[in-house]
């Protein structure tokens, strides 16, 4: 186990480095720069700004300088606002994380319950209803779902105030974030449960008189969790860092909206910091997912 974790950590570091290289060089390959839109900026001012942030140097040199600063824990400052990137992430990520954790928990619990129900009541009306709803949710883009929720409950019915970073009205953003992963987990759970319940060990357990609930949840659901865990790890990482579309629609000042504004403003340091931050969370989530495999099914060997 220790040897496996060390290998995965080294691979994770390599993955983050490759992602940072692709992002940095692709970002600098696009014509223009972060200060090109500055009004009434003279050539001398532009030269001074570029020199201050090392943008006058060759791109490979810029990348080496950026990575040296990153290894020292320095994410730099925003090229547009002059604020520390660490401060911006520290302010915006807790908002995305709060919504993401709640949405992930709802998606996992509801998906497992609905998927198990659909599998146990196959071809009956609950199964058909669940399949219809999950198919509808899966086919509906997240921005459409978020817009409908905002329009219906905030503007028409006025039941829920629109979310702001300082408020506690998180119902609609959480629903918008959780619906799509919940539908996918439901379909995965149903498929895996149907496969697990058809195995010989399930028939043997039933023949021995093992209680039905124990057969379903201890033997069936536990062995059906592997495909779900495979999806849940990256899903949580993605939701934690914020959904760009949902955050933009609800006006949430989370990390996703900061990433979008960084791209729009060609804020190189913001783009790099948020990309690397997302990559680190994603590779850590994948590593934890593999470890959870072993806890759920001891037969799995991690090598």
Please write out the topology.
Blueprint: H1 2-29, H2 43-52, H3 59-71, H4 85-120, H5 125-139, H6 142-156, H7 171-197, H8 200-207, H9 212-240, H10 244-250, H11 255-264, H12 268-296
Helix pairs in contact: 1-12, 4-5, 4-7, 4-9, 5-7, 6-7, 6-10, 7-9, 8-9, 9-12, 10-11, 11-12
Could you walk me through the main structural features you see in this protein, from its secondary elements to its overall organization?
With 303 residues, this protein is mostly helical. The protein has twelve helices and no strands. It is 75% helix and 0% strand. Helix 6 runs parallel beside helix 10 (244-250). The N and C termini lie close together (7 Å). The chain has helices at 2-29, 43-52, 59-71, 85-120, 125-139, 142-156, 171-197, 200-207, 212-240, 244-250, 255-264, 268-296.
Helix content: over 70%
Low-pLDDT regions: none
What is the 3D form?
flat
Strand pairing plus helix content: what structural class? mainly alpha
Span between termini: 7 Å
Q: How many alpha or pi helices? A: 12
Write the H/E string, N to C.
Answer: HHHHHHHHHHHH
* Quaternary organisation of the protein chains: single chain
Overall pLDDT score: 78
Give the biggest sheet.
none
How many E-type strands?
A: 0
Strand content: under 5%
Rg calculated over all Cα atoms: 24 Å
């Amino acid at each position: 186990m220790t040897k496996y974790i060390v290998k995965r950590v080294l691979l994770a570091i390599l993955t983050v480095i490759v992602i940072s290289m692709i992002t940095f060089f692709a970002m600098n390959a696009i014509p223009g720069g972060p200060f090109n839109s500055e009004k009434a900026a003279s050539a001398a001012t532009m030269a001074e700004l570029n020199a201050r942030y090392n943008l006058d140097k060759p791109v490979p040199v810029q990348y080496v300088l950026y990575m040296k600063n990153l290894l020292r824990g320095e994410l730099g400052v925003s090229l547009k606002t002059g604020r520390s990137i660490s401060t911006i992430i520290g302010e915006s990520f807790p908002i995305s994380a709060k919504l993401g954790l709640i949405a992930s928990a709802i998606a996992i619990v509801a998906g497992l319950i609905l998927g198990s129900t659909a599998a146990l009541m196959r071809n009956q009306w609950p199964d058909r209803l669940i399949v219809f709803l999950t198919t509808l949710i899966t086919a509906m883009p997240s921005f459409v779902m978020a817009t409908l929720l905002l329009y219906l409950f905030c503007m028409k019915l006025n039941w829920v105030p629109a979310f702001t970073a300082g408020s506690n009205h998180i119902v609609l953003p959480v629903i918008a974030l959780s619906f799509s992963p919940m539908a996918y987990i439901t379909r995965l759970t149903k498929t895996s449960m149907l496969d697990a319940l058809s195995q010989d060990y399930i028939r043997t357990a039933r023949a021995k008189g093992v209680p039905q609930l124990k057969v379903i949840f201890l033997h069936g659901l536990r062995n059906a969790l592997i495909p779900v865990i495979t999806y849940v790890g990256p899903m949580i990482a993605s939701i934690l860092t914020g959904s760009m579309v949902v955050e933009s629609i609800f006006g949430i000042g989370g990390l996703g909206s900061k990433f979008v504004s960084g791209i729009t403003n060609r804020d190189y340091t913001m783009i790099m910091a948020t990309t690397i931050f997302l990559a680190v969370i994603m590779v850590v989530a994948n590593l934890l997912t593999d470890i959870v495999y072993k806890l759920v099914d001891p037969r799995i060997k991690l090598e």
